[in-house]
Target: phosphoserine transaminase
Amino acid sequence: MAIEQPATRPANPRFSSGPCAKPPTFDLSKLAGAPLGRSHRAAVGKEKLLSAIEGTREILGIPAEYKIGIVPASDTGAVEMALWNLLGERKVEMIAWESFGAGWVTDVVKQLKIDAEVKTADYGEIVDLSTVNPAHDVVFTWNGTTSGVKVPNGDWIADDRDGLTICDATSAAFAQDLPWQKLDVTTFSWQKVLGGEAAHGMIVLSPRAVERLESYTPAWPLPKIFRLTKGGKLIDGVFRGETINTPSMLAVEDYLFALDWARSVGGLQGLIGRANANAEAIHAFTYANDWIENLAADPATRSNTSVCLKFTDKRIADGASFAKAVAKRLEAEGIALDIGAYRDAPAGLRIWCGGTVETSDIEAMLPWLAWAFEAEIAAQR
Ligand SMILES: Cc1ncc(COP(=O)(O)O)c(C=O)c1O
Model:
């Protein structure tokens, strides 16, 4: 028996967790003001880069005394810059509960060869954050994109800590409240929550992180692309838009457009509200259907951006191929693109819910997910 297809389709089937959907009002003509073919060090270029920095500060509510820089190599570049510049001064705790956090553990333990205290949890779970020692530096991911598990809040970070907190917030910034007073280094990329272009990262430094940079020199060499100090002083220009190397002015224009769009939906609170509404629509769907569950065990840790789901129906013979087949069926119908779980994550789906996704598209997609599930169960017989 053919299973009937739902009547309504999402207007936009893009639910990828990165690069993420562009803002709904985007089209290429919005980038016509990009100073293409001009130097990024000319006044026009510098002005655009500075306004990307200050627009970020305004929307994310970053304190005036924090430094914000645009750096190469996207979020990865920003995180590695932090690890290579700052670590080694004191004991380090690495906490990880999914693939990207695990990647930072590898960097610190295997590449930098730091004798770090490593704390991990399985996909769907989170490390006991209360065990973090405020005398240590700690490296963690605010929102684990590949497991859909986020830290619930920053209450576990001591205000009077001696160590630095280094936070990969790439799938949290612009979707979740980040307590800046608790974060010494925060990184994210343009390609995530605001649907910007890839390859550009941002690094946000607290005064304590700057103090460490100016007072500590790591034992290892630093390539030019990572260097944030010269002669023991912060290279201040980087934090005014004088980038270390050449940025794409088209990507800068695109980010400025995304910031404008963010303002138009009510800034940070508007963006958080949009992501929450998207994630809530999926949560309601999982509560209503006993064959699918959120991968994040504790509701307080459930992401509102990278929502990860697992199939729990006993009739499923091979979980990995079932999940892939569901994702493929939805892609083939033009209903949902790129929603298979991350390659290192447990079998399932990952549906991006950041603010650039319209709730009406999530709501139109979900009945199709039920349709694809039933069709695959039938195909197994
Ligand atoms: C938590 C996390 N960290 C790092 C990255 C790497 O980001 P990029 O490819 O922008 O460097 C991603 C990308 O999905 C991520 O989700």
The chain has a mean pLDDT of 98. The longest strand covers residues 67-72.
